[in-house]
Amino acid sequence: MGVIGGMGPLATNVFYDMVIEKTEAERDQDHINMIILSHATMPDRTAAIKEGKTDEIFEKLLKDARFLEESGACCIAVPCNTSHYVLGWVQENVNIPIINMIDEAALMVKEDVGSGIGKYGEKVKIGVMATDGTIEMGLYQKALKAQGLEPVVPSSENQKKVMKIIYEGVKKGQPVKPEDFKAVADEFKEKGCAKALMACTELSVYKIKEGLDDYYIDAMEALAKKAIEICGK
């Protein structure tokens, strides 16, 4: 398995732990061979999307993907949701599969909620917690709608809290104010969301650290499961 990581480093570390924990193994040799390329100097993805300057992100991701392909990887996992905005173009230029975390997470949500149809025939609502870039590009909104679900994004005020959790909390290694997370969670529940999707790998880190319950579905978990499957484990 090839991994383009470092976006951020802590999230990549959690992804590696997740793959190890979810691989059925009784000895070292039962685990998956991995090449983890921690590209921590990759420009900020959300900033690039907002400024309309994604060419550099694309070129660097493509270079990394080609390196992993040439190094013998059978597939590539990228534990960064926002980067998926350009990964489709990267996929067109390499010959091994780049796992689409967005699609895999939406599929996992659908499997979790069942038919996707509520008690009165309405579509099941799913809250989406993600970076501004992921939200503005509609990455998860499109994927969830494709599964027959109704995505719900935070209000502008609460979206600022999500960004604060990601950038001022997890990425900086600083404590997250519980009231910031609670405000977003409460909004989802008030709007009737059956589940909330942690659609940023920093939020995946937060979910594990805080021991959040199964109301919160982790997109990175879907990526790990698919990567293990592709690698024949």
How many helix segments?
A: 11
Outline the low-pLDDT stretches: none
Mean pLDDT: 95
What is the name of the CATH architecture of the largest domain? 3-Layer(aba) Sandwich
Number of individual domains: 2
Trace the largest sheet across and list its strands.
Answer: 5-4-6-7
SS-derived structural category: alpha/beta
The Rg value, from CA coordinates, equals 17 Å
Shape: globular
Name the beta content range.
5-15%
Helical amount:
40-55%
Strand count, sense and barrel status of the largest sheet are:
4 strands, parallel
CATH class of the largest domain: Alpha Beta
Tell me the total number of β-strands: 7
Characterization of the model:
- The protein has 233 residues and is α/β, with parallel strands linked by helices.
- It folds into two domains: 2-100 and 222-230, Rossmann fold (3-Layer(aba) Sandwich), CATH 3.40.50.1860; 102-219, Rossmann fold (3-Layer(aba) Sandwich), CATH 3.40.50.1860.
- It is built from eleven helices and seven strands.
- The longest helix has 16 residues, at 55-70.
- The model has no long low-confidence stretch (mean pLDDT 95).
- This is Aspartate/glutamate racemase family protein.
- Pfam families: Asp_Glu_race.
Helices, strands, pairings?
Blueprint: E1 2-5, H1 9-22, E2 35-38, H2 45-51, H3 55-70, E3 76-77, H4 84-91, H5 101-113, E4 125-129, H6 132-136, H7 139-146, E5 150-152, H8 156-170, H9 178-190, E6 193-198, H10 201-210, E7 216-218, H11 219-230
Parallel strand pairs: 1-2, 1-3, 4-5, 4-6, 6-7
How do you describe this structure in short?
This protein has 233 residues and is of the alpha/beta class.
